[in-house]
Amino acid sequence: MNIKSEKNILQNIVERITGNEENILYALILDENFIAVADSDNEIGVDYSADDENYQVVLNGEVSSFEWYYPQIDDYVLEVAVPLFFEGKIIGVVGIGLSMEETKKNVTLLTLMFILLAIIISIGFFILQRKNVITPVKMLNKHIQLIDTERVGVKPLNPSDNKSFSGLYETINQLFSRLHENINQIHSLNEKVEEMAYTDYLTKLPNRLSLSLKFDELVRLNQRIAITLIDLDSFKEFNDTRGHLYGDQLLVKLSERLLRLNDDITFVSRFGGDEFLLLIMWQDQAQLDAKLQKLEGLISQPIFVNGEELSVEGSIGISLYPNDDKQLDGLISKADIAMYHAKKSGKNQSAYFSKSLQNSILMKNKIHDILRSSLSNNGFKLLYQPQVDVSTGEIVGFEALIRLKDHQISPAEFISIAEEKGLIKRMGRFVIKQTILELSKWKVEGLDLKPIAINFSVKQLNDKGIIEYIESLLREHRIPAKYLEIEITESILLEDDIEAIMFLNRLKKIGITVTLDDFGTGYSSLSYLSNFPVDKMKLDKKFIDQYLNESGKKIIKQLILLAEAFELDVVVEGVETIEQVKLLQELKCKYIQGYYFSRPIEDEQIREIYSKKYDIS
Predict the structure, then answer these.
(1) pTM for the full model?
(2) Residue 144 and residue 494: Cα distance in Å, rounded?
(3) What strand order describes the sheet that includes 266-272?
(4) What mean pLDDT comes out for the span 11-32?
(5) Which of 274, 248, 269 is nearest to 259 (CA)?
(6) CA–CA separation, 548 vs 540, rounded Å?
(7) Is residue 573 a contact partner of residue 593, using CB atoms and an 8 Å limit?
(8) Burial of 488: CB neighbours in 10 Å, binned 0-12, 13-18, 19+
(9) Most buried among 116, 271, 330, 511, by the most CB within 10 A?
């Protein structure tokens, strides 16, 4: 965790440590500048750089222990300071203050015992015979010298057959029994701290630090390693619909299953969230493929949580050491790129990192930055392509097409990135506003208004206030709604039938024309034409290129007849030749659009062709 941004969690940890162990007086966590980020005495932010001598060695990777006067108890304590690691680097210091009260008591009691022993010896010297005193004292001295106080287990002293000092032996043994308990408590605390440092709190799998240490070990052994990153598909939906506790149980169950892969060549760890990271040692591709196939099989098996059977899927990204990178961070980043590609390719599959994938991600990120900058700095513009009546050659409307002002990036490329990165709502509102402003300009100039069609993304269904936004702009500029057309694709209809129907009905209610765009390229179905409130059907250029010829024109004809049966107008886009125009006239298509008439043009050029009548004879 980040010690600077997760201060509340760290504070909770140090308070629990001091609350659970009575011999621990305080605990604190310092950053690399010796500033307290967590302190059981609530002295957060205190600068401990004055103690630089004691803490500096810790930043060098050593353990430091020192005594100092602790005002809260008006006595001295023993502080033990150890380095805090993150991904193999020391990022701070953990200090724990241990009470010396018990130790002092033991030392005092032991001292008293020795004094008592000395008195007994002195008295015995005069009362008992020499052999009855000196022999037991020597034996006792020998036993004391043999005591190893650094070991966890302290063996009791054995008075042998001489009972002269059995009471003293018993007292000393009691002292060391208590010392043994204290040592056990310290070891128990050390084990807890080590578990927290190296183990994931939820699944008990090794965490990132353990993964880093294991990777370094394998590198020293010159092993070839496959960094395998697993990300569960649709895990967010599990959490959102069933709750985070349910999601945690799912992760625990999956962790138990992944542990079946743990062997001499596989190291399983939890990377964070719903991501798991495996280190797989491999000698040849067949061995690696077999391991990955087993991994995919384990993930795809149903998991039972609270008696409910769940189907779990995961996308897997793989990078290879040393082929793709020699640093763990770089390898994980590249595995993430590959995993992202697996998700974009349909999820529930694996993918290897490649340079082309990396370049694609870099280009996407660059385009994302351009789009964000363009939204903030007026970097978009609209071009307009006329739609022509096949029978008269007159322009009956336009389609508004968004473009970048200063970058030659295809909309086919940047629209998908805008949808993926969550920018499409702002771009969609820009298009709506600019389109209505353009209609307003025509109105002010006294031109007879002609409809402008705009494209509507499936992601804009989530823009809950979009219809109110359209209505307010139409009212503000006094533009009748019939001059604004919305072109939707079949993907909107596939997203959520009920929500899509309600949305389209609201558009129709305020008078906006709805066109089903790109018909013939996706999941075209009669149900869309019969169940969804659309006014027009637009045939895509790819479809026209394939079938608008002498051999395929019957298919186009049937689609036109189908549209007529549903009382829909047909717009054919992508028309580029007079031969195509003639065929569409023959097929009695109503409206056409394409480069044969005009490329998309700037708004200043619209006036030049606004009243133009194209010669289509």
Answers:
(1) 0.61
(2) 84
(3) 266-272, 275-281, 225-232, 314-321, 350-352
(4) 85
(5) 269
(6) 11
(7) yes
(8) buried
(9) 271
